[in-house]
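Moderator note: this is an archived Q&A kept for reference. The question asked for a predicted structure of one protein chain; the sequence and the answer are reproduced below.
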Amino acid sequence: MVSSTEYGSHTWDLLLTVDHQHEDVGKEISLQVTGDLHVGGLMLKLVEKIEIAQDWSDYAFWWEQKKCWLLKTHWTLDKCGVQADAKLIFTTQHKMLRLRLPSMKTVRLKVSFSSMVFRAVSDICKMLNIRRSEELSLLKQSEGTLKKKKKKDKNSKEPATEDILNLSNSPVSSGLPANPGLYSKTMTPVYDPVSGSPASSTITWFSDGSLAEQNCSILALSHPTCSPEMLAEMYQPRTLADKAKLNAGWLDSSRSLMEQGVLEEDQLLLRFKYYTFFDLNPKYDAVRINQIYEQARWAILLEEIDCTEEEMLIFAALQAQYHVSKLSLSSETQDSTCESEVDEVEAALSNLEVTLEGGNKSNILEDITDIPKLADNLKLVRPKKLALKAIKTYWFVFRDTSISYFKNKESAQGEPIEKLNLKGCEVVPDVNVAAKKFGIKLLIPVADGMNEVYLRCDNEDQYARWMAACVLASKGRTMADSSYQPEVQKILSFLQMKNWTMCSQAASEPENVDMKPECFVSPRYTKKFKSKQLTARILEAHQNVSQMSLVEAKLRFIQAWQSLPEFGLSYYIVRFKGSKKDDVLGVSYNRLIRIDMATGDPITTWRFSNMKQWNVNWEIRQVAIEFDQNVSIAFTCLSADCKIIHEYIGGYIFLSTRSKDHNETLDEELFHKLTGGQE
């Protein structure tokens, strides 16, 4: 018989597992508890029973069946839903994790497995001296991208331990609070104007970071040499479907690592997820700039983004500049840099600063008083059947965000032959500097898809002015916008870089230079040219960048990468509502693009600026988006979880709210509101 007192107490046995390192103490402990006991009280009872004198402050309960942490210590077991069959593990919240950086360097550090990934990435970036952590996230390599590597690695051993940078003793990684002044704008760091890496005194920026003990410059330095064998072992996407696999493994920023099946000592990729590199500043961003450069470099080498032969040689020349400079520096002792050299480099880099949308918007009143226009003779190319093209010269007038064209200059006062509204269109460069071809491909949205129009300019200056106007018009801006002139200069600078690849200057003899050209270009171009030919062409182009500092060469590389038509597009295989076939959806910082999976041609573009709302039906995993003018789309994602696309859209909208006028603190609540969803 059970007494009424015992029966009324509602006590029951709860079996708990303690994750500790003491071999002489059992790991499974049974406690008698009641439903009204709060989680904090359960922790106290457990620690008292264990009788091990150690710091338990980082420990919390992990509920194995529900895959969740019990972090609200004031909640009762009843409120949490914990019953006698619950498997609770008392374990540390901070655990060791291996992260492969964009530079392919692996770091081992202690990360919070109980915080949301967004917060965990923020802490990681503080340890690595990377500002603007909201641009990065953690990526789990999908099975499709590992198959090739696994086959090749069957007989290979684990990477040597010296290749891993161990940051396990960082105060931040141990769960201690970071210095709130990490990103103070009053910092006066000193950096090496040649390598772009922080000088020793710069370590004081992040006094809490463990890189101070581990030589913090290591992550700001590039190691461009990689063997063709190493490239061959890595996953190289051949089709849009292959590229979609690259973006399938992004972790959910609103859930913890443990909740997403990540285990201690697992390896994840730390990558720039959002291609909006805001407020890049060489003074403070040596590591950040190098990691962006490395992510761009590997994207080029592995053909994750397409580029022409001219463009590939530009990228090769800029990498060669880094390689050749390193060779010359290794034979000389570096003297301490005087202040004038630092000022000179800062002045050179001021024109290369990369911002979210480009341009300073402080002169808006001046901009709107006079909206300029362009008027010139251009060739109009219209594709026709049987691969024939009709090319004819017309008088074109660019005003506001529209292009009108007339038979000739004299008839410009009358009605135009056609008026093209470029707002929301796709603008694709069609340039071959060697062949003196300066074309602009416009894909203008119409009711049943995209209307293709080609404009052909006579020279570089004309092309730069019209191309810049088209790019701004596609975003709904006019030439009065303060970003117009910088855009023109950026295009001219890129064309100038393309000129390097065909210059007639005498290059160094390839035999006299210790260079492996296969390390600077993608395998496609390695197969196309012999090694000596490739070396000669790279050195020829390199003559024009030989005077650049290394940090300037990196920023030029990033700028050239941003100029590629496919820059910033993340691909997913989707099925649109009402469609009978799969399509590819490209997600960019300002638009969504529906792409034909077979041909790779854009079908329709939707701008975020025209978006009214978006939501997810979690039951059928369908994303639905409403735009202006009663345009609605809905699709299911086949290559990844629909939450990833939902987070991409919300994340880009969140990043567009950033401003230099605000302090460095992020509105984390707004981020989760825009990206979290309600499952």
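Archived answer notes: The radius of gyration is 29 Å.
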